[in-house]
Amino acid sequence: MNKxxxxxxxxxxxxxxxxxxxxxxxxxxxxxxxxNAPADNGSSVQITESNVLTAGDRGQxxxxxxxxxxxxxxxxxxxxxxxxxxxxNAVIAFQKQQGLAVDGIAGPNTQASLASGSVAPAPDTTSxxxxxxxxxxxxxxxxxxxxVKAASTSTxxxxxxxxxxxxxxxxxxxxxxxxxxxxxxxxxxxxALGSSGFINLVMEEAGTDVNRTHAxxxxxxxxxxxxxxxxxxxxxxxxxxxxxxxxxSGIYIGGNKMIHAGKEGVEVSDMDYDYWENRYIGAKSIx
Length: 287
Hints:
By secondary structure, this protein is α+β, with helices and mostly antiparallel strands. The protein contains eleven helices and ten strands.
C-alpha cells in the first residue's frame, strides 16, 4: 500500500530540484549586480560618494575643505566655496605631502587625512600655477620700493599720467611679442621682466609712457572702463599685500584672458581662474 507514495515523493523532490536550478541564475545575477553595495550599508555608500569633492563643485563642503587646507598652510586664498584650479592644486600639494594618491580630488582618503590631525606641514614652495603672480608680485614689493625711492627725487614723475598715444592693436602686438620672456625682479627689458616692468615695456613699445608701479597706473594713467576691451589693462588687488590696491596687472586679449608677467615669465593666463576672479578690481584704457 505504500508503493504509490514513493513515486509521488520522487516527483516532489525532482520538482523542487528543477525549481532550485531554475532560480539559481536569477539569484546569482542579483548578487553579482549588487556585490559592491551591501544591503545593510546602502546609506553608508551614498554618504561616501556625496563626500567626494572635485573641480567644479561649490558650496559649504568646499569652503570647509578650503579652511582645513588653509589651517595646514596648503591654501592661502579666499575661502569662497568654489573648487577651482587653486583649490585643486592645493589638494594635489596636500596629497603629495601626505603620500596619498595624487589626483586633485578630495575623496574619502584625502578628507580623512585632513581630519586626522596628523598632517605633514605644507612645503615652502608650491607648484600651484595660480600662485605664480602672487609669488612674483611678492617680489614686486621690492620693485615698488625701488620705484618709490626713485620717485622721491621727482614728485612730478609719480604724479604724471600717461603721455603720447598708443592703439590697442599696438599694445596687444607688443604684449604678444614678449610672451616667453623670463621673469626677473625689477626687470624692465626684453632680457627679463618684472610684472610692472612688463606693462611699462609694452606701453613704451606701443608709443606711450605710464607710471612705474601697478598702483601708480591704477591711480593716474588712462581712463576707467566698465568692462575690458582688447588692449586694455586689467588690474588686481591683494596678490601679496592686502593693504594695497592694484598689486598686479596684465594686458587683456579677449576671451577673459590676459598676458602678464608671472613667476615663470610672460605668459597668457585665464582670468576665469578663481584666484584672478576674486582679485579683479577693474580695467583701464590707456591710449
